[in-house]
Every structure is written in structure tokens, then in C-alpha cells.
# Entry
Amino acid sequence: MVDGHQVECSIVEKMVQSLKQWEEQRKWTAFTEYCKSGLDSSGFLRLSITTYLESRRPEWVETQNVKIAQLIPTFVGVIMAAGPILDVFRHGIRTPYSG
# Structure
């Protein structure tokens, strides 16, 4: 809760489409432990605010050069700033960003 508003967030693993050739993947089977979904782990995390904020859903993705520890301060800052943004929506006040 931020300023009386529920702000939903997620921290999940960033997935990437597999580049392996079909022959390299295991053949299809009904057993889920042998199934290949087509997505592989990237080894990076994705942070997002799933609550709708001013026509966007902010998202940050960890990369080789930008580690999660560098993203967290910005992520938390946007979460804290979400309260006033959601107040604007609740009270119907238009901002230069709301169109």
C-alpha cells in the first residue's frame, strides 16, 4: 500500500525464446518433464509494476551491464511515486501526461 493505494509489482525471471534447432530439442512426449516450451532462462530478472500508471506499466530488465542492485532504487522510487499518480486517477484530476 502506498498512500492508501494498492500497488502491485512483480519480480520474475526474464525468459527468452530458445534458439536451439528442433532436432536438438527432445521429441514431444505427454510427460511434462520431457516437454520443451520454447522458452529458456535468460539468467536475468524483470521488475515490473503491474498496476496501471498513467497509460503505462513500468518495467526494468536486468542485463549483463545493469545488475538488479542498480535497478532496485529506481524501482522502489517509482513505487513510492505511484501514490500521487493514483490519487490523480481517483479524483479525476487531469495532468499534462493524462492527455
About this structure: The longest strand covers residues 39-49.
